[in-house]
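CORE FACILITY INTAKE
Project code: CF-77B
Contact: R.S. (postdoc)
Sample description: multi-component assembly, four entities in total
Requested service: structural model of the whole complex
Turnaround: standard
Below are the sequence entries exactly as provided by the requester. Do not edit them.
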Amino acid sequence: MAAARRTAQAHGYSGLNFRDLAADVGIRAPSIYHHFPSKADLGAAVAKRYWEDTAAELEAMSSECADPLRCLQAYPSIFRRSLESGNRLCLCSFMSAEYDDLPVEVQKEVQAFGDVNVAWLSRTLVAAGLVGREESEARARSIFAAVAGAQLMARSRSDISLFDALIDGYRAAGLLPGGKKASRRS
Amino acid sequence: MAAARRTAQAHGYSGLNFRDLAADVGIRAPSIYHHFPSKADLGAAVAKRYWEDTAAELEAMSSECADPLRCLQAYPSIFRRSLESGNRLCLCSFMSAEYDDLPVEVQKEVQAFGDVNVAWLSRTLVAAGLVGREESEARARSIFAAVAGAQLMARSRSDISLFDALIDGYRAAGLLPGGKKASRRS
DNA sequence: CGCAGTCTACCAAGTGTTAGGTAGGCTGCA
DNA sequence: TGCAGCCTACCTAACACTTGGTAGACTGCG
Protein backbone atom coordinates (compact mmCIF):
# COMPACT_ATOMS: atom_id res chain seq x y z
CA MET A 1 0.00 0.00 0.00
CA ALA A 2 2.95 2.27 0.54
CA ALA A 3 3.95 1.29 -2.97
CA ALA A 4 0.54 2.32 -4.24
CA ARG A 5 0.90 5.64 -2.54
CA ARG A 6 4.26 6.32 -4.10
CA THR A 7 3.02 5.46 -7.57
CA ALA A 8 -0.07 7.58 -7.16
CA GLN A 9 2.02 10.52 -6.02
CA ALA A 10 4.10 10.26 -9.17
CA HIS A 11 1.56 9.17 -11.77
CA GLY A 12 -1.84 9.81 -10.28
CA TYR A 13 -4.82 7.57 -9.85
CA SER A 14 -4.87 6.73 -13.53
CA GLY A 15 -1.24 5.76 -13.28
CA LEU A 16 -2.02 3.12 -10.70
CA ASN A 17 -2.24 -0.32 -12.22
CA PHE A 18 -2.67 -3.75 -10.76
CA ARG A 19 0.18 -5.54 -12.53
CA ASP A 20 2.94 -3.13 -11.57
CA LEU A 21 1.57 -2.67 -8.11
CA ALA A 22 1.42 -6.41 -7.52
CA ALA A 23 4.95 -6.81 -8.83
CA ASP A 24 6.15 -4.18 -6.37
CA VAL A 25 4.60 -6.11 -3.53
CA GLY A 26 5.76 -9.47 -4.79
CA ILE A 27 2.43 -11.07 -5.68
CA ARG A 28 0.31 -11.44 -8.81
CA ALA A 29 -2.22 -8.92 -9.95
CA PRO A 30 -5.44 -10.84 -9.23
CA SER A 31 -4.36 -11.43 -5.65
CA ILE A 32 -4.93 -7.77 -4.97
CA TYR A 33 -8.63 -8.39 -5.27
CA HIS A 34 -8.40 -10.31 -2.06
CA HIS A 35 -7.53 -7.11 -0.28
CA PHE A 36 -9.46 -4.55 -2.32
CA PRO A 37 -12.62 -5.37 -4.24
CA SER A 38 -11.88 -2.85 -6.99
CA LYS A 39 -9.48 -0.20 -8.14
CA ALA A 40 -11.79 2.46 -6.79
CA ASP A 41 -11.61 0.90 -3.33
CA LEU A 42 -7.87 0.65 -3.52
CA GLY A 43 -7.62 4.28 -4.53
CA ALA A 44 -9.94 5.38 -1.77
CA ALA A 45 -8.00 3.38 0.80
CA VAL A 46 -4.72 4.85 -0.34
CA ALA A 47 -6.09 8.38 -0.27
CA LYS A 48 -7.69 7.86 3.11
CA ARG A 49 -4.54 6.50 4.64
CA TYR A 50 -2.71 9.42 3.11
CA TRP A 51 -4.73 12.12 4.80
CA GLU A 52 -4.84 10.16 8.04
CA ASP A 53 -1.06 10.04 8.08
CA THR A 54 -0.89 13.70 7.24
CA ALA A 55 -3.31 14.53 10.01
CA ALA A 56 -1.18 12.57 12.44
CA GLU A 57 1.93 14.34 11.26
CA LEU A 58 0.33 17.73 11.69
CA GLU A 59 -0.84 16.79 15.15
CA ALA A 60 2.67 15.67 16.03
CA MET A 61 4.03 18.96 14.79
CA SER A 62 1.60 20.86 16.96
CA SER A 63 2.57 19.01 20.09
CA GLU A 64 6.28 18.89 19.41
CA CYS A 65 6.87 22.59 19.20
CA ALA A 66 4.72 24.62 21.49
CA ASP A 67 4.99 27.77 19.41
CA PRO A 68 2.26 27.80 16.75
CA LEU A 69 4.24 30.31 14.74
CA ARG A 70 7.02 27.80 14.35
CA CYS A 71 4.51 25.19 13.30
CA LEU A 72 3.26 27.45 10.56
CA GLN A 73 6.76 28.10 9.36
CA ALA A 74 7.39 24.39 9.23
CA TYR A 75 4.16 23.59 7.41
CA PRO A 76 5.52 23.78 3.84
CA SER A 77 8.14 21.21 4.73
CA ILE A 78 5.48 18.53 4.52
CA PHE A 79 4.98 19.33 0.86
CA ARG A 80 8.67 19.75 0.34
CA ARG A 81 9.28 16.21 1.46
CA SER A 82 7.24 14.82 -1.41
CA LEU A 83 9.43 16.66 -3.86
CA GLU A 84 12.55 15.41 -2.15
CA SER A 85 11.33 11.88 -2.43
CA GLY A 86 11.53 11.42 -6.18
CA ASN A 87 9.95 14.68 -7.25
CA ARG A 88 6.56 13.44 -6.12
CA LEU A 89 3.42 15.45 -5.64
CA CYS A 90 1.02 15.62 -2.78
CA LEU A 91 -1.29 12.74 -3.58
CA CYS A 92 -4.34 14.90 -3.29
CA SER A 93 -3.05 17.68 -5.48
CA PHE A 94 -2.56 15.15 -8.21
CA MET A 95 -5.98 13.72 -7.63
CA SER A 96 -7.49 17.18 -7.66
CA ALA A 97 -6.26 17.50 -11.20
CA GLU A 98 -7.75 14.15 -12.11
CA TYR A 99 -10.86 14.95 -10.15
CA ASP A 100 -13.41 14.51 -12.92
CA ASP A 101 -12.22 11.01 -13.69
CA LEU A 102 -12.14 9.85 -10.08
CA PRO A 103 -14.64 7.43 -8.54
CA VAL A 104 -16.78 9.19 -5.96
CA GLU A 105 -15.27 7.31 -3.03
CA VAL A 106 -11.85 8.58 -4.00
CA GLN A 107 -13.13 12.11 -4.50
CA LYS A 108 -14.39 12.11 -0.93
CA GLU A 109 -10.98 11.24 0.47
CA VAL A 110 -9.32 13.90 -1.64
CA GLN A 111 -11.62 16.49 -0.15
CA ALA A 112 -10.95 15.12 3.31
CA PHE A 113 -7.26 15.80 2.84
CA GLY A 114 -7.99 19.41 2.07
CA ASP A 115 -10.29 19.67 5.08
CA VAL A 116 -7.66 18.26 7.40
CA ASN A 117 -5.06 20.72 6.21
CA VAL A 118 -7.33 23.72 6.30
CA ALA A 119 -8.60 22.84 9.75
CA TRP A 120 -5.10 22.52 11.16
CA LEU A 121 -3.89 25.69 9.50
CA SER A 122 -6.92 27.57 10.65
CA ARG A 123 -6.49 26.42 14.24
CA THR A 124 -2.80 27.18 14.22
CA LEU A 125 -3.23 30.61 12.68
CA VAL A 126 -5.61 31.53 15.46
CA ALA A 127 -3.32 30.07 18.11
CA ALA A 128 -0.47 32.13 16.73
CA GLY A 129 -2.65 35.20 16.95
CA LEU A 130 -2.10 36.05 13.31
CA VAL A 131 -5.70 36.35 12.29
CA GLY A 132 -9.05 36.50 13.96
CA ARG A 133 -11.29 33.47 14.19
CA GLU A 134 -13.53 34.86 11.49
CA GLU A 135 -10.88 35.15 8.83
CA SER A 136 -8.78 32.19 9.84
CA GLU A 137 -10.39 29.64 7.61
CA ALA A 138 -10.20 31.82 4.53
CA ARG A 139 -6.55 32.48 5.21
CA ALA A 140 -5.94 28.81 5.85
CA ARG A 141 -7.45 27.90 2.50
CA SER A 142 -5.32 30.45 0.71
CA ILE A 143 -2.17 29.12 2.31
CA PHE A 144 -3.06 25.55 1.49
CA ALA A 145 -3.80 26.35 -2.14
CA ALA A 146 -0.69 28.45 -2.53
CA VAL A 147 1.61 25.80 -1.10
CA ALA A 148 0.04 23.16 -3.30
CA GLY A 149 0.55 25.42 -6.30
CA ALA A 150 4.16 25.95 -5.39
CA GLN A 151 4.70 22.23 -5.21
CA LEU A 152 3.13 21.77 -8.62
CA MET A 153 5.31 24.41 -10.22
CA ALA A 154 8.48 23.18 -8.61
CA ARG A 155 7.76 19.68 -9.78
CA SER A 156 7.34 20.73 -13.38
CA ARG A 157 10.88 22.08 -13.22
CA SER A 158 12.18 19.26 -11.08
CA ASP A 159 13.64 21.96 -8.91
CA ILE A 160 13.21 21.90 -5.16
CA SER A 161 14.96 25.21 -4.74
CA LEU A 162 12.18 26.74 -6.79
CA PHE A 163 9.74 25.47 -4.18
CA ASP A 164 11.77 27.14 -1.46
CA ALA A 165 11.87 30.34 -3.45
CA LEU A 166 8.13 30.32 -3.94
CA ILE A 167 7.53 29.78 -0.24
CA ASP A 168 9.94 32.60 0.50
CA GLY A 169 7.92 34.70 -1.88
CA TYR A 170 4.76 33.93 0.08
CA ARG A 171 6.50 34.90 3.28
CA ALA A 172 7.80 38.12 1.76
CA ALA A 173 4.33 38.99 0.57
CA GLY A 174 2.85 38.27 3.97
CA LEU A 175 0.78 35.23 3.09
CA LEU A 176 2.90 33.04 5.33
CA PRO A 177 4.46 34.25 8.56
CA GLY A 178 8.15 34.35 9.23
CA GLY A 179 10.43 35.52 6.50
CA LYS A 180 11.66 39.06 6.45
CA LYS A 181 15.36 38.84 5.91
CA ALA A 182 15.43 35.75 3.72
CA SER A 183 13.16 37.31 1.16
CA ARG A 184 15.12 40.31 0.00
CA ARG A 185 18.61 39.14 -0.69
CA SER A 186 19.89 35.90 -2.15
CA MET B 1 -7.49 21.04 -32.12
CA ALA B 2 -9.74 23.13 -29.97
CA ALA B 3 -11.43 19.87 -29.06
CA ALA B 4 -8.10 18.42 -28.04
CA ARG B 5 -7.44 21.39 -25.84
CA ARG B 6 -10.76 21.08 -24.08
CA THR B 7 -10.24 17.39 -23.43
CA ALA B 8 -6.71 17.93 -22.18
CA GLN B 9 -7.89 20.66 -19.82
CA ALA B 10 -10.41 18.26 -18.32
CA HIS B 11 -8.58 14.94 -18.46
CA GLY B 12 -4.95 15.72 -19.05
CA TYR B 13 -2.54 14.47 -21.64
CA SER B 14 -3.19 10.89 -20.70
CA GLY B 15 -6.88 11.52 -21.12
CA LEU B 16 -6.38 12.49 -24.74
CA ASN B 17 -7.17 9.63 -27.06
CA PHE B 18 -7.27 9.37 -30.79
CA ARG B 19 -10.65 7.69 -31.17
CA ASP B 20 -12.65 10.19 -29.16
CA LEU B 21 -10.73 13.10 -30.51
CA ALA B 22 -11.30 11.97 -34.07
CA ALA B 23 -14.99 11.45 -33.36
CA ASP B 24 -15.24 15.02 -32.07
CA VAL B 25 -13.79 16.29 -35.31
CA GLY B 26 -15.80 13.94 -37.47
CA ILE B 27 -13.04 11.75 -38.86
CA ARG B 28 -11.48 8.38 -37.97
CA ALA B 29 -8.65 7.92 -35.54
CA PRO B 30 -5.86 7.02 -37.96
CA SER B 31 -6.60 10.07 -40.07
CA ILE B 32 -5.15 12.18 -37.30
CA TYR B 33 -1.77 10.88 -38.33
CA HIS B 34 -2.10 12.97 -41.44
CA HIS B 35 -1.92 16.06 -39.31
CA PHE B 36 0.30 14.95 -36.42
CA PRO B 37 2.94 12.24 -36.64
CA SER B 38 2.34 11.01 -33.10
CA LYS B 39 0.43 11.65 -29.91
CA ALA B 40 3.46 13.43 -28.50
CA ASP B 41 3.44 15.86 -31.41
CA LEU B 42 -0.25 16.43 -31.04
CA GLY B 43 0.17 17.13 -27.35
CA ALA B 44 3.05 19.49 -27.97
CA ALA B 45 1.09 21.33 -30.64
CA VAL B 46 -1.90 21.72 -28.36
CA ALA B 47 0.23 22.94 -25.48
CA LYS B 48 2.15 25.33 -27.70
CA ARG B 49 -0.99 26.83 -29.15
CA TYR B 50 -2.31 27.15 -25.63
CA TRP B 51 0.51 29.29 -24.32
CA GLU B 52 0.63 31.29 -27.51
CA ASP B 53 -3.02 32.15 -27.10
CA THR B 54 -2.47 32.98 -23.46
CA ALA B 55 0.46 35.20 -24.35
CA ALA B 56 -1.69 37.01 -26.87
CA GLU B 57 -4.45 37.44 -24.34
CA LEU B 58 -2.05 38.87 -21.78
CA GLU B 59 -0.65 41.23 -24.35
CA ALA B 60 -4.15 42.35 -25.23
CA MET B 61 -4.85 42.95 -21.57
CA SER B 62 -1.77 45.10 -21.25
CA SER B 63 -2.68 47.30 -24.17
CA GLU B 64 -6.38 47.51 -23.43
CA CYS B 65 -6.12 49.02 -19.98
CA ALA B 66 -3.26 51.40 -19.55
CA ASP B 67 -3.08 50.93 -15.80
CA PRO B 68 -0.82 47.97 -14.95
CA LEU B 69 -2.43 47.70 -11.54
CA ARG B 70 -5.75 46.97 -13.16
CA CYS B 71 -4.07 44.37 -15.34
CA LEU B 72 -2.75 42.61 -12.29
CA GLN B 73 -6.14 42.63 -10.67
CA ALA B 74 -7.63 41.12 -13.79
CA TYR B 75 -4.97 38.44 -14.11
CA PRO B 76 -6.74 35.70 -12.15
CA SER B 77 -9.75 36.01 -14.41
CA ILE B 78 -7.84 34.09 -17.05
CA PHE B 79 -7.72 31.09 -14.78
CA ARG B 80 -11.24 31.66 -13.62
CA ARG B 81 -12.50 31.33 -17.16
CA SER B 82 -11.26 27.75 -17.36
CA LEU B 83 -13.29 26.86 -14.33
CA GLU B 84 -16.34 28.56 -15.75
CA SER B 85 -16.02 26.57 -18.91
CA GLY B 86 -16.84 23.11 -17.60
CA ASN B 87 -14.74 23.18 -14.45
CA ARG B 88 -11.61 22.86 -16.54
CA LEU B 89 -8.06 23.39 -15.45
CA CYS B 90 -5.29 25.42 -16.94
CA LEU B 91 -3.86 22.98 -19.45
CA CYS B 92 -0.39 23.43 -18.14
CA SER B 93 -1.30 22.97 -14.50
CA PHE B 94 -2.74 19.62 -15.40
CA MET B 95 0.29 18.75 -17.40
CA SER B 96 2.55 19.81 -14.58
CA ALA B 97 0.94 17.13 -12.49
CA GLU B 98 1.48 14.58 -15.23
CA TYR B 99 4.93 15.91 -15.87
CA ASP B 100 6.88 12.73 -15.35
CA ASP B 101 4.82 10.85 -17.91
CA LEU B 102 4.99 13.55 -20.55
CA PRO B 103 7.05 13.31 -23.73
CA VAL B 104 9.88 15.82 -23.67
CA GLU B 105 8.45 17.94 -26.46
CA VAL B 106 5.30 18.41 -24.41
CA GLN B 107 7.28 19.17 -21.26
CA LYS B 108 8.99 22.01 -23.06
CA GLU B 109 5.72 23.67 -23.99
CA VAL B 110 4.44 23.31 -20.45
CA GLN B 111 7.46 25.16 -19.19
CA ALA B 112 7.01 27.79 -21.87
CA PHE B 113 3.54 28.51 -20.52
CA GLY B 114 4.99 29.19 -17.11
CA ASP B 115 7.68 31.41 -18.59
CA VAL B 116 5.14 33.47 -20.50
CA ASN B 117 3.04 34.04 -17.42
CA VAL B 118 5.94 34.86 -15.15
CA ALA B 119 7.46 37.22 -17.69
CA TRP B 120 4.22 39.12 -18.09
CA LEU B 121 3.55 39.28 -14.37
CA SER B 122 7.08 40.38 -13.69
CA ARG B 123 6.92 43.14 -16.28
CA THR B 124 3.54 44.31 -15.06
CA LEU B 125 4.53 44.28 -11.41
CA VAL B 126 7.43 46.56 -12.20
CA ALA B 127 5.29 48.81 -14.36
CA ALA B 128 2.83 49.12 -11.51
CA GLY B 129 5.66 50.08 -9.23
CA LEU B 130 4.80 47.36 -6.75
CA VAL B 131 8.20 45.75 -6.51
CA GLY B 132 11.69 46.51 -7.65
CA ARG B 133 13.18 44.93 -10.74
CA GLU B 134 15.25 42.59 -8.61
CA GLU B 135 12.38 40.98 -6.76
CA SER B 136 9.82 41.16 -9.51
CA GLU B 137 10.45 37.76 -10.99
CA ALA B 138 10.33 36.00 -7.64
CA ARG B 139 7.07 37.71 -6.83
CA ALA B 140 5.72 36.89 -10.27
CA ARG B 141 6.48 33.23 -9.77
CA SER B 142 4.76 33.21 -6.42
CA ILE B 143 1.66 34.79 -7.85
CA PHE B 144 1.56 32.37 -10.75
CA ALA B 145 1.94 29.35 -8.48
CA ALA B 146 -0.63 30.61 -6.03
CA VAL B 147 -3.25 31.28 -8.66
CA ALA B 148 -2.67 27.88 -10.21
CA GLY B 149 -3.06 26.30 -6.79
CA ALA B 150 -6.29 28.17 -6.22
CA GLN B 151 -7.64 26.90 -9.49
CA LEU B 152 -6.72 23.35 -8.57
CA MET B 153 -8.44 23.54 -5.20
CA ALA B 154 -11.55 25.19 -6.57
CA ARG B 155 -11.83 22.51 -9.21
CA SER B 156 -11.71 19.72 -6.69
CA ARG B 157 -14.77 21.24 -5.07
CA SER B 158 -16.38 22.24 -8.35
CA ASP B 159 -16.83 25.60 -6.75
CA ILE B 160 -15.90 28.77 -8.57
CA SER B 161 -16.75 30.93 -5.60
CA LEU B 162 -14.00 29.12 -3.72
CA PHE B 163 -11.58 30.31 -6.38
CA ASP B 164 -12.76 33.87 -5.87
CA ALA B 165 -12.40 33.48 -2.13
CA LEU B 166 -8.86 32.18 -2.47
CA ILE B 167 -7.88 35.05 -4.72
CA ASP B 168 -9.44 37.44 -2.24
CA GLY B 169 -7.34 35.77 0.40
CA TYR B 170 -4.21 36.44 -1.63
CA ARG B 171 -5.18 40.06 -1.97
CA ALA B 172 -5.88 40.34 1.71
CA ALA B 173 -2.51 38.89 2.54
CA GLY B 174 -0.77 41.23 0.14
CA LEU B 175 0.37 38.71 -2.44
CA LEU B 176 -1.86 40.25 -5.06
CA PRO B 177 -2.62 43.95 -5.22
CA GLY B 178 -6.06 45.39 -4.85
CA GLY B 179 -8.08 44.23 -1.90
CA LYS B 180 -7.96 46.22 1.27
CA LYS B 181 -11.47 46.54 2.47
CA ALA B 182 -12.48 43.01 1.57
CA SER B 183 -9.70 41.53 3.60
CA ARG B 184 -10.18 42.70 7.15
CA ARG B 185 -13.78 42.30 7.86
CA SER B 186 -16.01 39.62 6.49
C1' DC C 1 -13.45 -29.00 7.44
C1' DG C 2 -13.27 -24.05 6.21
C1' DC C 3 -11.21 -20.22 4.97
C1' DA C 4 -7.53 -16.82 3.82
C1' DG C 5 -4.27 -16.03 0.42
C1' DT C 6 -2.38 -16.93 -3.55
C1' DC C 7 -1.98 -18.85 -8.08
C1' DT C 8 -2.71 -19.67 -13.50
C1' DA C 9 -5.38 -18.72 -17.24
C1' DC C 10 -8.49 -16.07 -19.21
C1' DC C 11 -11.55 -12.04 -21.06
C1' DA C 12 -13.43 -7.75 -23.09
C1' DA C 13 -12.19 -3.06 -23.79
C1' DG C 14 -9.37 0.22 -24.99
C1' DT C 15 -4.65 2.06 -26.25
C1' DG C 16 -1.28 4.21 -29.94
C1' DT C 17 0.15 2.99 -34.28
C1' DT C 18 0.93 0.80 -38.99
C1' DA C 19 -0.30 -0.83 -43.66
C1' DG C 20 -2.44 -0.24 -47.63
C1' DG C 21 -5.91 1.77 -50.31
C1' DT C 22 -9.29 5.39 -52.31
C1' DA C 23 -11.26 9.79 -53.84
C1' DG C 24 -10.63 14.18 -55.57
C1' DG C 25 -7.93 18.24 -56.74
C1' DC C 26 -4.00 20.68 -58.73
C1' DT C 27 0.01 21.09 -62.13
C1' DG C 28 2.43 20.67 -66.29
C1' DC C 29 3.43 18.65 -70.51
C1' DA C 30 2.08 16.71 -75.29
C1' DT D 1 -7.90 19.25 -74.47
C1' DG D 2 -6.36 15.15 -72.18
C1' DC D 3 -3.89 12.71 -69.30
C1' DA D 4 0.15 11.39 -66.16
C1' DG D 5 1.85 12.36 -61.78
C1' DC D 6 1.62 13.95 -57.48
C1' DC D 7 -0.76 15.91 -53.68
C1' DT D 8 -3.90 16.13 -49.41
C1' DA D 9 -7.27 14.10 -46.83
C1' DC D 10 -9.44 10.51 -45.53
C1' DC D 11 -10.76 5.45 -45.17
C1' DT D 12 -10.81 0.16 -43.34
C1' DA D 13 -8.47 -3.46 -41.14
C1' DA D 14 -5.47 -4.99 -38.32
C1' DC D 15 -1.46 -4.84 -35.12
C1' DA D 16 0.72 -5.42 -30.44
C1' DC D 17 -0.01 -4.19 -26.11
C1' DT D 18 -2.16 -2.60 -21.60
C1' DT D 19 -6.07 -2.06 -18.82
C1' DG D 20 -9.43 -3.64 -14.84
C1' DG D 21 -11.62 -7.66 -13.76
C1' DT D 22 -13.25 -12.89 -13.40
C1' DA D 23 -13.16 -18.13 -12.73
C1' DG D 24 -11.54 -21.78 -10.67
C1' DA D 25 -7.98 -24.47 -8.60
C1' DC D 26 -4.21 -25.05 -5.23
C1' DT D 27 -1.92 -24.55 -0.58
C1' DG D 28 -1.44 -24.31 4.26
C1' DC D 29 -3.08 -23.13 8.65
C1' DG D 30 -6.63 -23.17 12.69
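Facility notes:
- Chain A has a mean pLDDT of 93.
- Residues 27-28, 30-31, 34-35 of chain A lie near DNA strand C (CB under 10 Å from a C1').
Invoice: internal transfer
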